[in-house]
Design goal:
- This protein is an alpha/beta fold.
- The protein is about 40% helix and about 15% strand.
- It contains 14 helices and twelve strands.
- It has a six-stranded mixed sheet with strand order 1-2-4-3-5-12. A four-stranded antiparallel sheet has the order 8-9-7-10.
- Strand 3, helix 4 and strand 4 form a beta-alpha-beta unit.
- Helix 1 runs antiparallel to helix 11, helix 2 crosses helix 11 and helix 6 crosses helix 7.
- The longest helix is centred in the first third of the chain and has 43 residues.
- The chain is globular.
- The termini are far apart.
């Protein structure tokens, strides 16, 4: 009898504890749902702020490592909103961290800020017309990601302060992403060592997230410099040792080697120094390679082979060769737990409501660039997206693709990439046409939609400890169980901050004449005199 009573009492206590825990969890979920509805409304009310930030960064049009105007502008906004700034991280003048809060969870929030060479383009017009001929422009849409992050972080910060939520937010820029030139350095120098998770944003043409192997390639970016001796090209060419001959022989050798590389590789080069003038045997020449593959081992093998080839042609031509690592990225792999939590908020948020002007511009641009009828996944390309992407898991196989150094962060802490719909499907990528939408209502609406997703996902991560716990379980027991991160960047490898300096010195004075002035104009379109959308070039 006594044992029966004890068992009944124990059962009652267990049920009481279970019900209390369930009620507490239910209360937390209910509270979070209320906060999420509140922040969605708050983000909606920040459309003007989003538009101004997106348009302003668009007008700066700065190449990698030279994003001075962009960094100063965004830092000023963050300082005004209570964030503490650390400038010049990893020895990169335009790189910085902005922190607010204390304690756990420690969540890093980032996006890229650099633009594309020779991609200057007026927004909102369905024809090619540079703002400044030959100048850089946002032909990748990197003017939109950090405005999205900053808008979200400011609104989340307000709720954290009011609700006394523990947590640290760290905002950072992807400087020189087009050169894959900084994120591996950030990791090397320990800026993410205390972070629990990272959410990265990148412009796309739908709202989306994915987890697992992304199908992208990793890469090394390396420049080979040959030193020979000059001579008169006609009077005594036999006395010269042509560094340009070495560059050309290296390129010919590599092009023959392509036949014997896996079809997943991508390799491309530009000659950065081909000599001074034809009548002088070039004493110095250089070539810059991107070597891409699907695994660290294959990237390393290509890198080693390129060094062997460079050494061999130097011997052939009687020149000397040196090489410098300019950038690097691992193949992408992203976190399941965070992606799943994010996708629920994507479903709640939904795509922006595009009006007829948005769709007219999109279809006119697709016609302009001869966009394919379907994308690589077989989805129709016809105007802007009106149906959400699904949550994508690991690719089963990839023939190879582009690269992004966010992967280096993703191989060190749980990371996910939020793609938001601020651009037009079917554009070529890294092209002036990809800039057309990026200071228009399409970009502005996409940023607001993305900010709603990021804000609500942050609230989930701040109030539900299982998301980050599950994220680390996936990171340790799935992602890195067999594959371990090995950096290409060494302790002595300096960031290539010299890149693009001359180009920006050439074009910045003219670009400054076209910087957006929100005190005079409601939008950058208005400042440029564009009646959105302009489907045909106006006659004069």
């Amino acid at each position: 009898m006594r044992l029966t009573i004890i068992c009944i009492l124990n059962t009652a206590v267990m049920l009481f504890c279970f019900n209390a825990a369930a009620q507490k969890q239910s209360s937390t979920i209910s509270k979070t749902s209320i906060l999420k509805k509140e922040i969605i409304t708050a983000v909606d009310q920040k459309q003007k702020m989003a538009q101004e930030m997106v348009d302003m960064v668009f007008s700066f049009a700065e190449l990698g490592f030279q994003e001075t105007e962009t960094s100063n502008y965004l830092i000023n906004i963050l300082e005004q909103n209570g964030f503490t700034i650390e400038r010049g991280i990893s020895g990169v003048t335009t790189a910085w961290l902005a922190k607010w809060g204390s304690g756990k969870p420690f969540i890093a929030l980032g996006s890229d800020v650099d633009c594309i060479p020779k991609a200057s383009q007026k927004p909102g017009v369905a024809y090619k017309e540079p703002i400044v001929e030959g100048a850089p422009g946002h032909g990748e849409g990197h003017n939109s990601g950090l405005p999205l992050v900053i808008l979200s972080a400011i609104e989340v910060k307000k709720i954290m302060e009011r609700e006394h939520l523990s947590g640290t937010l760290m905002i950072w820029p992807g400087v020189a992403e087009e050169l894959v030139g900084t994120k591996a350095w950030y990791i090397r120098d320990g800026y993410f060592k205390n972070a629990d998770a990272c959410i990265f944003t990148h412009v796309g043409n739908n709202l989306g997230a994915s987890w697992g192997d992304s199908g992208n390639n990793g890469l090394v970016s390396v420049e080979f410099t040959f030193e020979g001796s000059s001579a008169h090209s006609a009077g005594a060419p036999w006395r010269g040792k042509s560094a340009l001959d070495a560059v050309e022989l290296m390129n010919v050798t590599w092009n023959f080697k392509r036949e014997h590389l896996k079809p997943t590789q991508r390799s491309h080069y530009v000659i950065t120094d081909g000599g001074d003038q034809p009548n002088v045997v070039p004493s110095r020449a250089a070539v810059w390679y991107y070597l891409r593959e699907r695994t660290y081992e294959d990237i390393k093998a290509m890198y080693d082979d390129a060094i062997k080839i460079a050494t061999s042609v130097a011997d052939m031509t009687g020149t000397k060769v040196s090489h410098r690592l300019l950038g690097t990225a691992w193949p992408g792999h992203f976190n399941k737990s965070i992606a799943q939590a994010m996708y629920k908020n994507i479903q709640t948020t939904g795509l922006p409501i595009w009006d007829s002007s948005d769709q007219q511009l999109a279809r006119a641009v697709q016609k302009l660039v001869n966009a394919p009828k379907k994308d690589q996944l077989g989805r129709s390309i016809n105007g802007l997206a009106t149906k959400l992407d699904t949550l994508n898991g690991p690719v089963l196989f990839s023939w190879g693709a582009g690269s992004d150094d966010i992967a280096d962060i993703g191989w060190n802490i749980p990371t996910v990439v939020l793609r938001f719909p601020s651009n037009i499907p079917g554009t070529p990528g890294h092209n002036w046409a990809d800039a057309i939408a990026m200071a228009t209502p399409i970009a502005h609406k996409g940023v607001i939609a993305g900010a709603k997703v990021l804000s609500t996902t942050l609230l989930d991560m701040l109030t539900d400890t299982t998301i980050i716990a599950d994220a680390w379980d996936y990171f340790k027991n799935v992602q890195t169980k067999e594959v371990k991160y090995i950096p290409f960047v060494e302790s002595t490898t300096m960031p290539a901050i010299h890149l693009n300096k001359g180009i920006m010195e050439k074009f910045r004075p003219e670009l400054k004449k076209h910087y957006y002035d929100p005190s005079k104009y409601k939008t950058y379109l208005e400042q440029l005199g564009i009646k959105y959308p302009e489907l045909e070039k106006r006659g004069f």
